[in-house]
Amino acid sequence: MSAKDNPFAGPAGGYKTEISFEAPGAGMTAAEQDLVRDTTTASFTADVIQESRNQPVLVDFWAPWCGPCKQLTPLLEKAVREARGAVKLVKMNIDEHPSIAGQLGVQSIPAVIAFRDGQPVDGFMGAVPESQIREFIQRLGGTGDATEAALEQAREAAAAGDANLAAQIYSAVLAQAPDNVAAIAGMAGLLLDQGDTERARELAAQVPDTDTSAEIAGVRARIALADEMSQLGDPEEFKRRLAADPNDHEARFELAKIQNAMGDREGAADSLLYIVGKDRGWNDDAARAQLLTFFEAWGLTDEVTLSARRKLSSMLFS
């Protein structure tokens, strides 16, 4: 997206101070209101993967015994129908269909994962307030939303290495919406990229702990990993231990954390996958738990996350 396409930018390249919002999916007919359905393992590909190529699809992982699920699901259904076609909702009972949840690393319910273009792109856990559900849906499906367009431009700038432009756009969004979680997470991510963990921590602390959206969860995970880095040992020592004993899982586990800290995501994932493959129960399933923490920090759509998640699923469900 060019600067001229940025809905926040004025004629001189500055940023507008007024943002207009339009309800997503306006003008839908009554026949188009059936936007909620149940799915199974067999129909998941059609209901979610294929359908998400038309519009975002929310997958609600629930179970009959789950009290918070009973609180969340009606709110989800209401918000999805009010969005009038911006997104669809697919519900999956994990008692009857556990494999998909396992493959996606769902560890507690209720859990909601959003798919777009066949891939998981965002999500949250727990029975969140209705207002947060609406914000989540707007981020996913609000095609007329000027804020989302600006956030997308900021993401593109950050991905292209233009941290200054990304920071400028995030600042403009926060000037109009100080509690915008996506902008807070984006700005905190830029600070983490610069090694400024403390300022990132202060910014992330503005988001309530009850907000478990993927963007802020990823920032929190990165902060936790940054804190961990100061306590990491000597990688050469761990390599020597592994040369002497390839099944020294403790050495490989610690090496994986160092590899991640040094930016070697593939190496970190492979180290943990090795442990899972050899002894999944080692240290109370610590390797798989650490891998899921990495996935959260790296992001749902990160190439290494997607590749390692497929490998993990193959190990657990083959």
Automatic annotation (TrEMBL):
Keywords: Disulfide bond, Electron transport, Redox-active center, Transport. GO terms for molecular function: protein-disulfide reductase activity. PROSITE patterns: THIOREDOXIN_1, THIOREDOXIN_2. Gene3D superfamilies: Glutaredoxin, Tetratricopeptide repeat domain. Pfam families: Thioredoxin (PF00085), TPR_19 (PF14559), TPR_20 (PF14561). GO terms for biological process: cell redox homeostasis; response to stress. Residues 17-142 form the Thioredoxin domain. One of its GO terms (cellular component) is cytosol. NCBIfam families: thioredoxin (TIGR01068). Belongs to the thioredoxin family. This is Thioredoxin. It comes from Nitratireductor mangrovi. The gene is trxA.
